[in-house]
Amino acid sequence: MLVAEDLVKSFGVTRALDGASLRVFPGEVLALTGPSGSGKSTLLHCLSGVIAPDSGRVGYAGHDVVAMSDRHRSALRRSAFGFVFQFGQLVPELTCLENVALPLRLAGVRRATASARAAELLDRLEVADVADKRPGQASGGQGQRVAVARALITEPRVIFADEPTGALDSRNGERVMRLLIAAAKERGAAVVLVTHEAQIASFADREAVFRDGKVAGSAMAR
Ligand code: ADP
Ligand code: ADP
């Protein structure tokens, strides 16, 4: 479903990606691991169309993500991709419910419908009690589950997560992983996550180990 072939990306003299190739399948949870600075985040950014590689190919469902117009790429990102970051990156001025409803509102869904769907998802993720609170009033674990809800509400085909559990204790980290795994298994979404925690990587179906800007090894985690 998502393919990276021979990606090269330099920042000045730093070669962040040096011939990275990868495939991700529907319903699969893929963990990108490896030392800091080995190119994991840069690959995630190339796969999700945030930055363009200097050379190489990124394909999503038959589309060439690098060659497509900016407008087409933004539309793809909005409709097919969901994003989760290390520190939720929720809008502090909005309530948790409004944060989760936001992607639907931006897609033109009516407020009542968007709010109802957001409330339902918060309930499923067991954070209904923070719906009317601002992110600053929720705990780290709650906030991150709200961030996952916001990423899932548009029912994306691919979920990109950059250290989604990095700021959480192991119990909350495991909880967030279970939500991402459920999205993959129940809806057939692909999940690509960057993590430096072996414990978190062990939940994935497959692990791609980065070294010096490329995938050095790929192992079945279980
Ligand atoms: P990882 O996610 O594995 O820690 P990154 O992809 O963040 O690795 O970074 C790979 C290399 O590229 C590092 O040396 C990093 O400093 C460099 N790098 C990443 N993004 C930028 C950028 N925007 N500008 C300059 N250097 C960057
Ligand atoms: P992460 O590894 O989680 O992406 P970082 O703190 O390494 O977090 O990077 C944060 C942002 O800064 C990213 O957008 C990354 O591309 C950029 N970045 C990383 N390394 C460098 C660098 N050496 N110079 C400039 N920007 C960088």
TrEMBL record:
Quote the Pfam families the UniProt record gives: ABC_tran
Q: Which UniProt keywords apply?
A: ATP-binding, Nucleotide-binding, Transport
Q: What is this protein called?
A: ABC transporter ATP-binding protein
CDD domains of this UniProt entry?
Answer: ABC_MJ0796_LolCDE_FtsE
What is the organism of origin for this protein? Actinoplanes palleronii
Q: Which InterPro entries match?
A: AAA+_ATPase (IPR003593), ABC_transporter-like_ATP-bd (IPR003439), ABC_transpr_LolD-like (IPR015854), MacB-like_ATP-bd (IPR017911), P-loop_NTPase (IPR027417)
GO function terms (MF aspect): ATP binding
SUPFAM superfamilies tied to this protein: P-loop containing nucleoside triphosphate hydrolases (SSF52540)
Q: Which PROSITE patterns match?
A: ABC_TRANSPORTER_2 (PS50893)
Record-annotated ABC transporter domain positions: 2-222
